[in-house]
What we know:
By secondary structure, this protein is an alpha+beta fold. The protein is built from 3 helices and 4 strands. A hairpin with a 5-residue loop joins strand 1 and strand 2 (70-72). The radius of gyration is 39 Å and the shape is elongated.
Amino acid sequence: MKFFTTCAMGAVIGLTSLLPVEAAPIAVKSFSTGSDVQGVQYNERRGHWRGHRGYRERRRGYRRHSDGYWYPLAAFGAGAIIGGAIANGRNDGGSHQEWCANRYRSYSVRTDTYLGNDGRRHRCNSPY
């Protein structure tokens, strides 16, 4: 079935390429005698985009980025501090310590271990 379909499509494409195309208009070449070209003076300014030269001196406390704006370094520092505080929240590990203390009678908060049945200290693995 695939072979028949492939042959049929090939024949249709081949026959349609042999027929004359009557729907397309014939392109007419036209030449204009007048010219709209004006002579201009070219002024190349190397290293400056559209003539912008930027600031004369380096601005203290600011860093230049690729979007064309100046940002103070303190803004990035404040953003990092605020973002870190939001992401971490206030978690002092109290739920882990409470769970281990409730599960093991010999649990030590200072070392995060408990005394096992074999007489050795084991680290507490809580779900928190």
